[in-house]
Amino acid sequence: MQCGICDRHKQRVTCVQCAQTTVWPLRTEFLFKVSERDAASEKVQEYLENPRGVIEAKLARRDVIQERVEIIRNESERLRESIKVDRARIEKLRNDIAARRRRLDAAHEAEQNRHGMLELLKTDIKRINQKCKLVYTRTVEARSFLCREAAGLYGLRLKRRRSGRVEYSIGGVLLPNLLVGLNAHPHTNLNVSLDHLAHLLVLVSHYLGLKLPNEIILSGRDNPYTSLRGLLNNRHIAARPLHAESPLPVLARENPTAHSKFIEGVSMLALDIAWLCYSQGLHINEVEDASNIGHCMWKLLVAKDSTAVTNPSFGKVSHATINGYLASSRYEHVMRDFKLRYNLIADRIRYTLQGETIVADWDMVPDAEKDIKAIRRRSVAGITEDQVAEKASPSSRPSSLSGGGVGRWTRIRARNEGS
Which end of the chain offers a freer environment for a tag, N or C, measured as fewer CB atoms within 10 Å? Predict the structure, then answer.
């Protein structure tokens, strides 16, 4: 701008000179563009006036048009596929929205009826719990009845001798006390009584739904004799028989291995009985008590004041039902203090049998001093012992030798000892 007025108001041109100065660059640029346009027009006109150029132009135009048509077709196909995908997606979204609406409506309805449904659910739970408790109570009663009936059918009895001694029998066969006179029992009676007791124990454990520490394998086609299988010394699982081929003293001398296995089998049976009694409320936790197997089963099932009758916890714990499940943490206190182990019972029985074997090698004579003095007097008088034996009658023998009365007992070596 050459004047101050136009320079001050740049948006408005006031004088002619400033207007010429402003328009001149645009006019110059316009002239250059017009000249370029005229030159290009002349070249196009020359090209079109040539026939070959016209044909080439048309061919080029056709190729361009075909290329554009192909591009349009491809794009149209792509759009169709995209439309199909979008339609499927829209349909899926519609279905999802409809499902959500249904769930939302159901949730609203459930929320509206929540209180009523909650009360109904509480009522159903209470009813089912009462039904379960009733079934559980009846199951416990049935367990007690079945166990007592099984003991009665197997003939588990108590016998009191005139001497005051108490004996237990099953099926009419005497049940031994494992720590008292086990060597004196006939091995056939011992086998029969232990077999009957094992059968009864299997039935009782089945009725109570209990898994015994040592599995009892009853006699069958592949197993002629009853045996027990369990963990020995926390090392390996082995089976031990409940059958002795000969009297125990003879078996100990002729086949110590079979004798040891029989003692282990009897100990495993005693442990099963003690464990069963302890789980049902009859606390058998000492070796002396567990060894009296007949008393344990009689006290558990048959006695008038038996555990099956007097103890309300009998039959409540088992491995077969959710209520009273013995392996759960709620009932772990039941067997927490049970301390008996198979090896404790087996060692005690071996020690007792060894003592009985030692005692059996001695003769027990009552009033030994008086008999020795009488023999000396007869020898002085010239009367031999054979003559005294011929004259003496069974009634004239000392009452202590015939079973009545108790005198002083002295152990003397057997006549064949040391010969």
Answer: C
Angle at 257 between CA 255 and CA 259, to 5 degrees: 70
Instruction: Pull the structure tokens for residue 36.
Output: 């370029």
Q: Tell me the per-residue pLDDT of 98-134, one tens digit each, with 9 for 90 and over.
A: 999 999 998 888 788 887 778 888 999 999 999 988 9
Rounded Cα gap, residues 248 and 260, in angstroms: 10
Which DSSP letter does residue 182 get? G
H or E segment and range at residue 276: helix 256-279
On whether the CB atoms of residues 269 and 194 are closer than 8 A, the answer is yes
Residues 60-87: tens digit of each pLDDT: 888 899 999 999 999 999 999 999 999 9
Lowest mean pLDDT among 108-112, 179-183, 295-299, 406-410: 406-410
In angstroms, rounded to a whole number, what is the distance separating the alpha carbons of residues 36 and 294?
A: 131
Instruction: Kindly tell me the burial class for residue 114, based on how many C-beta atoms sit within 10 Å of its own C-beta (0-12, 13-18, 19 or more).
Output: exposed
Instruction: Please answer whether residues 175 and 169 qualify as being in contact, where contact means their C-beta atoms are separated by less than 8 angstroms.
Output: yes
End-to-end CA distance of the chain: 159
| Predicted confidence (pLDDT) per residue in 249-307, tens digit | 899 999 999 999 999 999 999 999 999 999 998 999 899 999 999 999 999 999 888 88
Burial status of residue 300 (CB atoms within 10 A of its CB: 0-12, 13-18, 19 or more): buried
Structure tokens given for 119: 């009360």
**Beta-sheet pairing, 166-170 with 157-160:** antiparallel
Q: Taking a C-beta distance cutoff of 8 angstroms, is the pair 262, 244 a contact?
A: yes
Closest CA to 346 of 222, 238, 200: 238
Q: Residue with structure tokens 């199909």?
A: 84
- Please tell me the predicted confidence (pLDDT) of residue 377: 57
Radius of gyration, alpha carbons of the chain: 55
Rounded to 5, what percent of the chain is helix, strand, coil? 60, 10, 30
Give the SS3 label for residue 178.
coil
* Closest to 196 measured CA to CA, from 269, 303, 292: 269
